[in-house]
Amino acid sequence: MYAVVARFELRPESAEEFDALARWRIAEAAAEEPGLVAYAIHRVDGEPLARVFYEIYRDRDAFAEHRATPQTAAFLARHAPYVQGPPRMELLEPLHTAGRLGGDPPARAVPPRPDHDRQGSMTTFAPHHIALSVGDLDRSKAFYGYFGFRPVAEWSRSDKSLTISHLRQDDGFVLELFHYADDGARPRPAFTVGNNLPEIGVKHVGFTVPDLAATRAEIIEAGIGEVTEIARGRTLVDYFFVIDPDGMYVEVVHDARDLDPERPLLLTDAPR
Q: Which fold has domain 188-257?
């Protein structure tokens, strides 16, 4: 394998434009260049105008192909107004590696900061509740009671056509259940795994546990609902689903990732 390290010094007030251009180039290269194993750009602590590119290629030919693409030439031309002089580059060859970088990896980590990563509000926001519409209020209360939710408040119309029930966990998180009396006459949606993920909208509630396999076994023994197999998600979180009384998928996860908002993890599938 071959690696390239390039350091750019940016012009004042140009960092945002350069970062957007770099993200475009990284995403394009990841999608179109099979010889590219990893491609990332990092900020430098204490140096707000410094950027470092790390590029790893399958071999020297893949590196040469990358340098010869029109897209690389376009990037080099387009980034010129944002940088102070040419980048300092070093080609490291050969790169002896072991483990995940020793073959074609199933995914690549690219940690550019996202466009929306800005200074947030001075207000502290904390999760409070999620709302579900259910067909049988008592049945849903029993199901979600298994996950530690206990009734704490309820409102009903005088004609009982609508009931809103609040169930709360010990940490204060609230599950809001809506039940309409004519629900029995409404067509029931057919949910796919995760609750129809391609469709726009809220998808599912998820709970984290320390031991995924043990929790799955306990849920199966309790018989509260159908359970899927444990799997590893595309964002590297282990999970399974349990289906609630209305057919909605509830996720149970174990998240062992060591994440850092200063260096967010961006994953993609391997190019075909």
A: 2,3-Dihydroxybiphenyl 1,2-Dioxygenase; domain 1 (3.10.180)
